[in-house]
Each structure stands twice: as C-alpha cells, then as structure tokens.
Specification:
Blueprint lengths: L2 H26 L8 H5 L12 H12 L5 H28 L4 H12 L10 H17 L2 H14 L5 H12 L4 H25 L11 H9 L2 H21 L5 H21 L12 H17 L5
Helix pairs in contact: 1-4, 1-5, 3-4, 4-5, 4-6, 4-13, 5-13, 6-7, 6-8, 7-9, 8-9, 8-12, 11-13
C-alpha cells in the first residue's frame, strides 16, 4: 500500500469520524436553561462553568473576525473543531497502543461512546476528550514540554485535567525516572494548574469553585428510577466491560495510567458530579478505547494475556 493511499484514508477517516460526532452533537443535544450559550460566551454563566473558557475564547475570536456571525453559529464551529481535535488526538493515542494499522478502530469506538454523552450543549465536554488523549500520548512518548503546555491549556477548558498530573507522575516513576525529577514534574503541573486557576478567579471572580453533589444526593439519583440506571449502564457500563476484557492484554504503561486515573475520577464523580451523567467520564474515554483495542488486537492475533 502506498503512503499516499494511507494518508488519504487517514485524512478522510479523521474528517468522517469528526463529522459524525459533530452531527450527533448538533442534532441530539440542545441548549440547557442553566447553560445558555449567549451567557457562556459573555462569561456570565454561573460557576464553575464560567471558568471553562478555552473554546469560549475561540468563539469570541471568531465573532471578532466575523461580527455578523451569530453566537450560536460560532459555538457550533468551536465544537466542530473540538470533534476534529479529539478525533486526531485519539488516533495518535491509539497508535501507541495498537500501531497505526488498527488505530482507526479506536476512533470508531470513541465516536460510538462519545455520542451517548450528547444531551445538552457545553463548550468544554468534547474538549475534555481531546486534552486527555493528547496529554496521555505526549506523556507516554516522553514529550514533557508539549504535555505541560497541553495540561495548562486543558486547565482553561476544564479543571478536571488536574488528575493528569498524578497519572503522568506515577507513569514516569514506574518507567525509572529519578524520584526528584518525578516530584519536580508533578510540582510543575500543580503550579501551572494553580497559577491558571488563580488567574481565572482574579479576572472573573465567582463565589464557588465547584459544585458539590455529595454521596447521598448521588444515591438519590439512582433511586429515582430505573431509566437513569439503564442509560448509565448502556452509555458507560458496557464500555467498562470491553475495557476490562482488554486489561490482560494491555501494556504495563496503560495499566499504570488506568490504575491511577480511575480511583481519582471515581472520587471526583461521587463528591462533585452527577454519577449518572456519562459525560462526567469523558476524561476516561481514551483509556476505555485503548483497553478495548487491546482486546480487539489480541482477538485478531490470538494472543495470550501478558
């Protein structure tokens, strides 16, 4: 197969997957009364959503260049961009797990899982997938500077990116990086996070840094009706099963990142989020996809668990 044919396939597939994700986002989602797009763009939406501004800033830049464009259209453009970025980052991430030949399957898995999260519109949810996949890919390759830059930008998109600091620090430690350097890396990311968050609170003061749901309120969510639990299992639980099947075939570094990330996200979900909202686990999506691909690759090659 020629390189030109492979490149053509890659470009067409990337755009096709990104378009499928955006099309589902555009038609399955809607504007929520607590997250009005005009208010989000004007930076007047309530906390903690006001500080998730990266794609908001992109929308404002678009409106500055094309003032005749509506705010809603600018928002849609940013989300099309987010879909494309997430698709490309997922391919690069999957290439590390199963190689270039099978990476496209990971993009398809990403699209299938991601569309189940499209309920109401936000500027930041799809971006979470991009930054998680991109930071993980850079960390595994040992690209520290790009990883730090993406981490800081990801902080502007969603504060949950902080979990990546411990993920990558433990990864580097298990790979033999000197302890002092590991601690320095972890400290650097925490400082970048703190400075970015402090700047946001200085420029846009709010009376709350987070929303606290609590364990009891989350238990009530599942108690309210079986439909909520069914949607959660179909949109998230089944992907956990396919990921678990791939665990025995996964490389050590993937197991390390997953083992560190999952407990952190579980604590955050129970204390601060609505545990039945599948979009809450978007940062875990690259790991779900990677582990699922490990099983697919092993099944095709008839490999034995490692």
């Amino acid at each position: 197969m020629t390189d030109k044919r492979r490149l053509l396939f890659t470009v067409c597939f990337d755009v096709a997957i990104a378009w499928a994700c955006y099309y589902a986002f555009r038609n399955a989602g809607s504007e929520a009364d607590w997250y009005v797009i005009d208010r989000a763009t004007d930076l007047t939406v309530g906390p903690p959503f006001r500080h998730r501004i990266l794609f908001v800033l992109i929308a404002k830049a678009i409106l500055a260049v094309a003032p005749s464009m509506t705010t809603m259209f600018a928002f849609q453009v940013t989300q099309g961009l987010a879909c494309l970025l997430a698709t490309v980052a997922m391919r690069k991430w999957c290439e590390l797990v199963v190689g270039p030949s099978l990476a496209f399957a990971g993009q398809a898995v990403m699209a299938a899982a991601l569309v189940t999260t499209f309920w109401y519109w936000t500027f930041y949810d799809i971006g979470v997938v991009f930054f998680a996949a991109a930071c993980f890919a850079c960390a595994v390759r040992g690209w520290l500077v790009p990883c730090a830059v993406l981490f800081m930008l990801g902080t502007l998109n969603h504060e949950g990116i902080l979990l990546v600091a411990l993920d990558t620090a433990v990864l580097f430690w298990t790979r033999g990086m000197p302890r002092l350097r590991v601690l320095s890396w972890f400290g650097l990311l925490v400082v970048l996070y703190a400075l970015t968050r402090a700047a946001l609170f200085t420029v846009m003061p709010v009376d709350s840094a987070y929303q606290s749901m609590g364990i009891l309120r989350n238990l009530e969510i599942f108690h309210n009706g079986p439909g909520t639990l069914a949607r959660f299992v179909l949109g998230f639980g089944l992907w956990c099963v396919t990921a678990a099947l791939g665990w025995p075939y996964a490389p050590k570094w993937l197991k390390v990142i997953t083992a560190v990330h999952v407990p952190q996200l579980a604590v955050v979900a129970v204390l601060f989020g609505k545990v039945n909202e599948v979009r809450l686990y978007n940062g875990l999506l690259p790991l779900h996809v990677a582990l699922t691909l490990c099983f697919i690759k092993a099944m095709l090659a008839k490999e034995q668990p490692v």
